[in-house]
Amino acid sequence: MLRIAVPNKGALSDPASAMLHEAGYRQRKDRRELVLVDAANEVEFFFLRPRDIAVYVGSGRLDIGITGRDLLLDSGAAAEEIMQLGFGGSTFRYATRPGTAQEVTEFGGMTVATSFAGLVAKHLAEHGVDASVVRLDGAVETAIQLGVAEIIADVVETGTTLRQAGLEIIGEPILKSEAVVVRRAGAGVEEPKVQQFLRRMQGVLVARRYVMMDYDIRAEHLEKAVALTPGLESPTISPLHHEGWVAVRSMVPAVEAQQIMDELYELGARAILTTNIHACRI
Ligand SMILES: Nc1ncnc2c1ncn2[C@@H]1O[C@H](COP(=O)(O)OP(=O)(O)OP(=O)(O)O)[C@@H](O)[C@H]1O
Ligand SMILES: O=P(O)(O)OC[C@H]1O[C@H](OP(=O)(O)OP(=O)(O)O)[C@H](O)[C@@H]1O
Ligand SMILES: [Mg+2]
């Protein structure tokens, strides 16, 4: 059995379960379920706090976990990122009231409030800044209003929470984060059951990002058409009954599909179709 940790709550919980479901795994129906066995796939899921996941995986008790890169690095656990999952994107940033400081080097003697004390202490030390760090559980934006800190360091997605608290971002992001798959440091990814899990997740990423495109084109325009739709490896070309024409089948990035269809049409392609990819192994 492959033992996998999945966020039980928070911003990563629903998208992580949705992705696992798309990869063919059973997922819980009740949010109170904390352990779920998917016997058919020989996987056991443990629904844990995202902040704790790297700790469990780092200890070697669980084979694999899904968590945020920011939480992984903050934990200091002996776990490493083995795959990016393309959701839960955020930046981790300093913010303050206008006029307090413009960059991290000006924080000397100040107090920084954060839920990510490990990350912040490391970042301050790297910049040789002697500032205090206060660890809070959440809603850290309010720490400034209540006089607990002059600076905060927190997850920023849209920036709405900061704006509403009258705070402004200081400098460049400390970190860019997203949901990642983690594994005990040094454990490698060679184990067949780990390989199979990663291939399934990779299949979901590709199925989400690409569509299948089919079209017919006169053979003399084929090279130009194929340059627009090179596919992941190489497009499939089939002869058509109608002499001088061929059918092309190729995967294209979903976000570019409409543009590519316009360009193919201009080239003389016809019967241009796109279809969603339900699942794949690349
Ligand atoms: N808008 C967001 N708010 C909070 N965390 C986000 C957001 N978008 C992505 N994330 C990521 O989710 C993880 C935070 O997990 P956490 O358990 O703190 O969830 P949460 O959404 O803050 O829930 P809660 O505060 O209820 O525990 C981090 O990796 C963070 O980068
Ligand atoms: O940039 P935004 O889109 O506004 O999102 C960022 C906010 O979301 C998170 O808060 P959360 O709802 O997790 O509450 P918490 O601070 O109590 O964890 C995070 O801590 C920020 O406050
Ligand atoms: Mg939160």
UniProtKB/TrEMBL annotation:
Gene (name only): hisG
NCBIfam families the UniProt entry points to: hisG, HisG_C-term
Cofactor: Mg(2+)
PROSITE patterns assigned: ATP_P_PHORIBOSYLTR (PS01316)
Regulation of catalytic or functional activity: Feedback inhibited by histidine.
Pathways per UniProt: Amino-acid biosynthesis; L-histidine biosynthesis; L-histidine from 5-phospho-alpha-D-ribose 1-diphosphate: step 1/9
Localization per record: Cytoplasm
Top-level taxon of the source organism: Bacteria
Histidine biosynthesis HisG C-terminal domain span: 207-278
Any one GO molecular-function label of the UniProt entry: ATP phosphoribosyltransferase activity
Role, per record: Catalyzes the condensation of ATP and 5-phosphoribose 1-diphosphate to form N'-(5'-phosphoribosyl)-ATP (PR-ATP). Has a crucial role in the pathway because the rate of histidine biosynthesis seems to be controlled primarily by regulation of HisG enzymatic activity.
Name this protein carries in UniProt: ATP phosphoribosyltransferase
Alphabetic keyword roster: Amino-acid biosynthesis, ATP-binding, Cytoplasm, Glycosyltransferase, Histidine biosynthesis, Magnesium, Metal-binding, Nucleotide-binding, Transferase
The reaction(s) this protein catalyses: 1-(5-phospho-beta-D-ribosyl)-ATP + diphosphate = 5-phospho-alpha-D-ribose 1-diphosphate + ATP
Family annotation (HAMAP family): HisG_Long (MF_00079)
CDD domains: PBP2_HisGL1
EC top class, as a word: transferase
UniProt KW NADP keyword: no
E.C. no: 2.4.2.17
Membership in a protein family: Belongs to the ATP phosphoribosyltransferase family. Long subfamily.
Pfam families xref list: HisG, HisG_C
ATP phosphoribosyltransferase catalytic domain sequence ranges: 49-203
